[in-house]
Each structure stands twice: as C-alpha cells, then as structure tokens.
Amino acid sequence: MADNETLECVTEHERILQEIESTDTACVGPTLRSIYDDQPNAHKRFMEKLDARIRNHDREIEKMCNFHHQGFVDAITELLKVRADAEKLMGQVTDTNRRLQDAGRDVTAQTEEVICCRIQQRNMATTVEKLQLCIPGDTGYCYLRDLIPAVEYYAALKTMEQLENVYIPRVSQYRFCQIMAENLPRLREEIKEISMSDLKDFLESIRKHSDKVGETAMRQAQQHRTFNSAVAKQVHTGHYSKPVYSLSGRTHTHISNGLLTDDDAGDEEEADEEVLTAQDLVDFSPVYRCLHIYTVLGDRETFENYYRKQRKKQARLVLQPQANMHETVEGYRRYFNQIVGFFVVEDHILHATRGLVTRVFTDELWNMALSKIIAVLRTHSSYCDDPDLVLELKNLIVICADTLQGYGFPVNRLFDLLFEVRDQYNETLLKKWAVVFREIFESDNYSPIPVETEEEYKLVTSRFPFHDPEIEKQDFPKKLPMSQSVPQIYIQVKEFIYASLKFSESLHRSSTEIDDMLRKSTNLLLTRTLSSCLQNLIKKPHIGLTELVQIIINTTHLEQACKYLEEFITNITNVSPETVHTTRLYGLSTFKDARHAAEGEIYTKLNQKIDEFIQLADYEWSMAESDGRASGYLMDLINFLRSTFQVFTHLPGKVAQTACMSACKHLSTSLMQMLLDTELKQISMGAIQQFNLDVMQCELFASSEPVPGFQGDTLQLAFIDLRQLLDLFMVWDWSTYLADYGQPNSKYLRVNPATALALLEKMKDTNKKNNIFSQFRKNDRDKQKLIETVVKQLRSLVNGMSS
C-alpha cells in the first residue's frame, strides 16, 4: 500500500512540474494550491522533486554552454576586427555627406521654387476646374429666373431638374449653391401655383365661352347635314360628287372640274369662318402647360382629380336651365349650345391629352348629363303650348344629337325623347287646331254655299273635292249642299298634316314610319279634336234644327272627303296604302258619330219644340161640347212640323223618316200624358170630343206624308193608341172592349185597361159633380150604373194583370 501511494504521489508531482513548465506564470497559482490540498507533507516531497528537476536543467545548460563556447569566442574575435573597418567607413560616409550637402544646397533652393510654382499651378487649375463646375449651375439658375416671368414654366422645371440632378450636386459644398438649392423648391411651388391659377382662369373662361363653341359646332353639324342632303339629291339625280371632310367637321365637295365648292362657293370669308374649331375659339395652352408641369412635378394624379372635379361641377351648372327657358327658342338654343360646347371641349381634351380625362370619365359625365337633359326637356316642354316653339325645340334636339354623335357620344336616348316631344307637339297642334275649328264653326252661317259663276265654282272645288253630276248640270247661280265651313275644315286638316310633317323632318326615319306618324296624328285630329268640336257645336243651345240639318250634310261631305286625305298623305310619303302596316284614317267613324249626335240632337230639339207647343194647350176640360174645330196650338204645331220636315229634304231618307216618326210618337205620347195627368181630376165628354178633333188633325198630318218614304199607314200608327182609346169613349163601346179583351184581333187591342180606367174615373167624377139631379132621371141613372159596372170590370182586369 505504501508503495502504491508513493508511486501515485511521484506521478502527480511529475504532472504538476510539466504543467508548471508548460503554462503561463499567471496560471501557476491553482497548480501550486493543488499541492497543498493534497496529502500532508506532500509539499516537502514536491520541493525535493522540484530541486531535482532544477539541478537536472542546470546540468543541461552547462553542457550546452560547453558545446558552443568556442564558436562564441570566434565570433567576438570577428567583431573586434569589423569595428576598425566600420570606423573607417563611417569617416568616409561623413565626408561624402558633407560634400553632397555643399553641392545640393543650390539645387534645393531651386527645387523649393519649382515646388511653389507647381503648387500655384495646381491651385489655379483646381480653381478653374471648380469655376467651370459652378458656371453651368450659375448660368442655369439665372436662366431659370428669366424663364418664370416669361411664362416658360415647362422649360423652367426642366432647368430645375438639371440643376438639382446634375449641376448643384457637383458644387454642393459651396454656400451660394446651397442657397440656390434651398430656393428651387420655393420656385417650383411658385410655378405650380401660377399654373394652377392659369388653369382656374381657363376653366372660368371655358364656362363663359361654351355656348360659343357649342353654337359653332352645331352650325357646322347643320351645314354638314345640309350638305349630305344636297349630295344625296345629286346622287339621286345622277350627278356624283365626292365629299371631302376637314378635321374641323366642315364639308367640301370636289366636282368634275376640280374646284372646291362650299355651301356658298363665292363667299371665302364665310367659308373661313365656318372652319373654326374648338382650338380656334379656345386657348387650351393653360391646360397643356399645367398638365406638363404637374407631370414633371410628379403630381399628375392631383391635377387630374382637380380638373375632373371642377369639370363635373361645371357640367352641373351647364345642365341647370333657366327658369323661363321654355318661353323662347333662344332659351333652348342657349341651353343646347352650352351643353354641346362643354362636351366638344371635353372631347378635345380627351384626344389632345393622354389620360387627363378618359373615355370612361366622359361616358360617365355624358350619361349623367343625358339623364338631366331628358328630365329638363320633359319638364319644360310640358309648359310649352306653342307648336312653333316645340318644332324649334325638336330641331335643336336633332342638331344637338347629330353634333354630339359626330363626336362619338351615344344619343339614342335623345332620339327616343323626340317621340315624347312629338306627342307634345301633336298636343299643341291639336289645341291650336281646336281653336281654328271653333272659329270656323262660329263664323259659319250654316247655309249652302251660293255659287254665282263658274270661277267661283272652280275655286270651291279646288279647295274641296266636291263632285256632283246633277249640280254640275244646273245653271248658275246655284248652291252647293255643304256650308262654307266644309272646305275650310278640309284645308285646315291638310294644313295640320303639313305641320305634323315638319316634325318628321331630319328624324332619320323611314317613309313608312313617317307615314304612320302622319296618319296617327291625323286620326287624333279627326277623332278627338274635330269630333269634340263637332260634339260641342251640336250641344250649343243656339244651334237650331236648320243648323243641325246643315251639320249633318256637312259631316256627310267631310266623310266622303276622307279618302282624298288618305291620298294626300300617300302622295307626301310615297307609301302605298296597301302596305300591311299602314294605318287607316278614322274619319269615317268620326263623322258618323258626329252625324249620329246631330241626328239625336235633332230628335231632342224637335221633341222640345213639340213640348213648347203642348205647354200652350189650354183645354176646357169641363166643356159641354166641342168647338167643332181643332185647337189653335195644335194647328201651329202641325204647321211648324210641316215647315221643319221640308228642311229635311237634304237629309238622308232614313234620318228624315226617323225624325218624323220620333216627332209623331212624342206628340202622341205627350197628348196621352195630357189626358192621364194626375192633376187633371175631371174630363167631360165635350172635352173628349175636342181632344178627338185635335188627334184627327194629327192623323191627317201623318197621312199627308210629310216625309217621303213611309209605307202605307206606318206614320199613322204613332197615334193608334190615342185613336183606339178615343174611339172607345166616343162610341161608348165597352161591351165590345170587355168581350174582346185579350183577343189578338180585338178592335181596341192598343187600349190598356189601366189607361181606360183612369180616364173613365175622371169622367165619372164629372158626371157626379155636374149632374146633381141626374139621380132623378132614369137614363142618367142607367148611365151612371153602367160606368160603375165598367169601372169594376176594368179594375178587375187591372188587378188580374198586376197579379
């Protein structure tokens, strides 16, 4: 055990010694501490081991010194020999250095002079170089200061860009260059503000001059359209000419002789005026200049947004009409001029600049404007009651649409609006012609047109298509059946067609469409306006039977003239009436309705006149016996009817017959009502006899055929109810009546039991009142009993009918 511990201790001490020899002195502490931390008395053994190691190293050093001692001695000997030579060499070098110093003193002085010259030359070259670097910047800055007052902003910005990117960075270390660099942003903002101010002035100017631009553009479009129409006519007639279009929209024509002709070939000044464009009327340089400036400054988007925003505001102002625009055509023209001018400018900006406005922006602006324009025109046109003004409005809409269509704007909605304006135009025409028709009717004398000479006859037939072989055979003077209003109405209808045709011009519609529009508007005139005027005329209280008869005759001739109106429209439009979709004129139904209304009014007025005569009746219902002659009021009535029915000779047969039958029936009914009047309490036999005489006169009038065409006793049948009733009372044939009642061949078939009962009770009351002593006379008592018996039987018949 002791040997093992000793061995380990020796090994450990060996390791520690190696570690001490191989490590740095600063790290020896921990190693030495490990010796003392070990077994007791271990440091003594380590010290012994250390001493042995030292002695071992001393022996090795001694051996090495003994080995190299001779070489060291030889080296010392050689050094001693070299020292003498070194001292000799040092002396020679010192002498040589002295001689060189003496020889180079002049050269050194000259060299210093040369160095000073070289330094001066270098400084001068540097100065020239720096000055050359500064000169472009200084020159550019001075040039820049001159460009701004000269309104050369784009060149000024380019100069700034060169100064900032090229010249100033080369000499940025100098103070004056730093001042210039500090001034450049301020100058740039100044240019920016000035250009924006110019743009604002431009926007204000263009707002004021839009109407002039629009007026010029619309005038050119109108001339272009007129030229195209002339070219179409020349091509149609075989003279071909080739149109030449200028960039301004002005149209010229090269004809066969090589000359250039305008609408007015001899007026060169007018031609020069007509080729004006938006560029000629408006200076767009502020827009271009401002756009370039903002583009160079890298703020183009701000400029585009500002321009578009301002133009939208101006568009809303342009689209806002004046309150009284609908009163004059100038108001509408100014409104359209401003709109067209606005969009002509926008179209120019769209094509002359790259991206300042886009097609999407202009389309959006146009759609907004189109909706506003349509709403404004709908509102203001509804206030207009002058057809000429509506026609002018239509022309302005067409020119506006053609102008903007030439610039690529869609205008279909404007042409659709024209259909609404056409309806408004037709309404104003109908109102105007309603006044014309009323004036014609009021001024008419409602009597046949007298014709004294053949010239007068030709004059009338030239105005109205009248042909009657029988009247043509008559000698002059003669009378035409219609009154003066007929040719006047016919002429006015043709004038209406012409006026309606004016609206169809320049609408780019086919002949079939124009024909359809003319026929529809003419139908409105006939079925609404003329028909209404006729109906109102017929209902007027001052229109008598004679006038009504003449109105019926007039409507008959106007009805016959409808086919000539259709031919008139066909000649205008060149559309065959056999075309499938051709609208027919409704004049036939219009005049038939008016004629039927007049006929009904004739019947009404005739009955009213009969009622007036009936009101004059003054029967003495208690008379003992009749006067032996008919009543005066009835004879007057019959004379009136005779004279009236003589006027009916010009009426169609059925009309006269119906009027006569209606009058007789009404007279019969009125007489029957007079007998059965509830206020009439008593009737004597004498009154019945007098009444019978009056009815006989009515029957004589009916049998005299006041109006030809009745067959047999047809007209007398109107009084058959009265006749049978009066016969029953005159003959006092109650037994026959009661026995044959209900039989189809009864003699008193038309006598109603209720009617007979009512009349019989009136006679019974009379007998009671007037014959107070009749009860003492046997005949009277028998008659009274008979009456009571008949009354009872009649009442039973009436009760049987009601049950």
Could you give a short description of this structure?
By secondary structure, the protein is mainly α. The chain is built from 27 helices and five strands.
Structure overview:
- This protein is mostly helical.
- Among the domains are: 174-232 and 278-409, no CATH class; 429-597, Exocyst complex subunit Sec15 C-terminal domain, N-terminal subdomain (Tetracycline Repressor, domain 2, Orthogonal Bundle); 617-801, Up-down Bundle (Methane Monooxygenase Hydroxylase, Chain G, domain 1), CATH 1.20.58.
- 75% of the residues lie in helices and 2% in strands.
- It has 27 helices and 5 strands.
- The chain has helices at residues 2-22, 28-36, 42-147, 153-170, 175-237, 268-274, 278-281, 285-296, 300-318, 329-352, 359-383, 387-406, 412-443, 454-463, 469-473, 485-504, 511-539, 545-560, 562-573, 587-615, 632-647, 653-675, 685-703, 720-731, 734-740, 753-770, 778-802, and strands at residues 242-245, 251-254, 260-261, 449-451, 478-480.
- The chain has a 3-stranded antiparallel beta sheet with strand order 1-2-3, covered by helices on one side.
- Strand 2 (251-254) and strand 3 form a beta hairpin.
- Helix 10 packs parallel to helix 12 (387-406) and helix 20 (587-615) runs parallel beside helix 22.
- The longest helix is centred in the first third of the chain and has 106 residues, at 42-147.
- It is elongated.
